[in-house]
Design brief:
The protein is an all-alpha fold. Helix content is about 75%, strand content about 0%.
């Protein structure tokens, strides 16, 4: 009896340790990301080196492509690994090395901006793909380490704390960009260095994770056998097929994402330091949505979170266009445009909580890495949407670009109603 009690206490202690390790990993990583946000800070930095909308859009394409593309091959490898933590650590080390290299190469912008731009894209690509390596094993570790009843609490805690602290980062960014004595590129070097600091804290937190239970594994098949087996997943699991469709259409959210900042400068006449305000209010949306979605997920299920996200995701392009209309009529427009970034933050929260919770509930444990890799890799073509957005802006206008994205986002909302309410939801 005493041995059973000791085993129970050890298990509870391990669950608590892993809950905190993954919680603070996420919190610090999200704070780090707010200093190198692909929808605000990175496009703003690149726009100081080039005026090309295509190159500015390429930043979001690289970030998303690096996250999505490696995951199917990583999933194949991860399926055969009893322990997933070492794979996450490899990707995490590469990510932080690349971020350090971005900081060092930014110094070249003073005398050789073209070289600085080339090196930025090189190391930004490495950073993005390194993050993609960690995606599948990290989510698998999360599913293995955090019991289902604790996941709503996990989302509420991590999104509230990381969002609250990231809200403050927006004002820090605004303060740095507003100091006239700190000129480009040194202002962005300071911002990127803060990103590295919190990325290192994230790494140290994750390293505390205890993975002492082997995952259920399959013998890793050959690549050809692995790829041939993928169609069987779609034939046998209609829930997964519908989720892929919804997730793909939701990804049109990224088409205009890097251009809200340049649109604010070129069409709305807003100064560069407003990017800090946008980051802060994006975090406000993230915080509020995280608190709400965590509860909604626990009480009503992840399908409800996805449907609410479907409504939210259609609003940012509309608000951007309405802001321009108010600007042209000399009416107050800044509060409405700030609301655009709040909704971007809320949408990011909803996609993460809704899509991935639904996925974890429908995926068999032994096939979980495959499901995670598939949902991300099959939506990988959408990573080129920001590039398409840049082409549309160059050849047509911002208005056409926003309307084009809106059509697909509305289709995503409609398709979310096709998802089945699953057991455990």
């Amino acid at each position: 009896m005493q041995n059973l009690q000791e085993q129970y206490n050890l298990k509870e202690k391990k669950v608590k340790n892993n809950f905190n390790a993954l919680s603070y990993d996420s919190i610090f990583f999200n704070i780090s990301t707010s200093f190198i946000d692909p929808g605000t800070i990175i496009p703003s930095f690149v726009s100081m080196l080039t005026s090309s909308p295509v190159l500015i859009g390429l930043t979001t394409t690289i970030r998303n492509c690096g996250w999505f593309l490696p995951q199917l091959l990583v999933a194949r490898r991860a399926e055969g690994l009893p322990y997933k933590k070492p794979l996450v650590l490899i990707g995490a080390i590469l990510y932080r090395f690349a971020l350090l290299s971005i900081i060092l190469s930014a110094f070249l912008a003073v005398k050789t901006p073209n070289l600085a731009l080339i090196l930025f894209f090189l190391f930004f690509t490495l950073m993005s793909f390194a993050d993609g390596i960690t995606g599948v094993p990290w989510i698998d570790l999360f599913a293995k380490s955090i019991p289902v009843p604790m996941r709503g609490r996990y989302y509420s805690k991590t999104q509230f704390l990381s969002g609250s602290l990231s809200f403050l980062t927006g004002f820090i960014i605004k303060g740095i960009l507003n100091v006239k004595t700190i000129i480009f590129p040194y202002n962005y070097i300071i911002i990127f260095s803060l990103a590295l600091l919190f990325a290192l804290l994230s790494f140290f937190s994750f390293s505390r994770l205890i993975e002492d239970e082997k995952s259920k594994t399959n013998n890793a098949p050959s690549l050809a056998e692995y790829l041939k087996g993928i169609p069987l997943v779609f034939k046998s699991d209609k829930d997964f097929s519908r989720l892929i469709l919804v997730n793909t259409l939701f990804r049109f959210f990224f088409l205009p994402l890097p251009f809200y900042i340049t649109y604010a400068r070129t069409n709305l006449g807003l100064p560069e330091d407003m990017v800090g305000i946008f980051v802060s209010f994006q975090m406000v949306g993230f915080i509020i949505a995280g608190l709400i979605f965590g509860r909604v997920n626990d009480i009503f299920g992840s399908k409800k979170v996805i449907k609410i996200t479907g409504y939210l995701i259609t609003l940012p392009p509309v608000l951007a266009l309405l802001s321009n209309l108010l600007f042209l009529k000399h009416l107050p427009y800044i509060p409405l445009y700030i609301m655009t970034f709040m909704l971007i933050g809320a949408t990011n929260s909803g996609i993460w909580v809704g899509i991935f919770n639904y996925l974890l509930k429908i995926a068999p444990e032994e096939k979980r890495p495959l499901y995670i890799g598939l949902i991300n890799t099959l939506t990988a073509p959408t990573t080129f949407l920001p590039l398409l957005g840049g082409v549309i802006i160059e050849n047509f206008s911002y208005i056409i670009m926003f309307l084009f994205a809106e059509i697909f986002l509305v289709c995503g909302l409609i398709s979310s109603f096709s998802l089945r309410h699953i057991d455990g939801d």
